[in-house]
Design goal:
The chain is of the alpha+beta class. Helix content is 34%, strand content 19%. Strands 1-2-3-4 form a 4-stranded antiparallel beta sheet. Strand 3 and strand 4 form a beta hairpin. The two termini are 23 Å apart.
């Protein structure tokens, strides 16, 4: 899976082991970055194709991203590259 290239000056380095986030987020480690006044969180090639979250703080962006991750995984018909990467990385088997 291709990850969008983020300007290093915009990136926010996160130690997911120290944050109160779910295990999936700790394993996937999406990129957090600043975009204007907002913080964004992304796993994938771009916000449209990837799993994307945003918020007023880095933590809110990660929380929004986690909700979008749950939504994406609950859409059982989704067979895109990002979802398949997530399922493989988290060792999620098809039912």
């Amino acid at each position: 899976m291709e990850q969008m290239q983020i300007d290093p000056e915009s990136r926010i380095e996160i130690d997911y082991q120290d944050w109160p986030v779910n295990t999936a987020t700790q394993k996937l480690q999406p990129v957090v970055f600043k975009d204007g006044d907002s913080f964004c969180c992304l796993l994938g090639p771009d916000p449209q194709a990837g799993i994307f979250g945003c918020g007023d703080t880095a933590f809110q962006a990660v929380q929004d991203w986690e909700q979008h991750l749950r939504d994406r995984l609950s859409e059982s018909q989704t067979q895109d590259e990002v979802t398949e990467y997530v399922k493989q990385k988290l060792d999620i088997q098809a039912f």
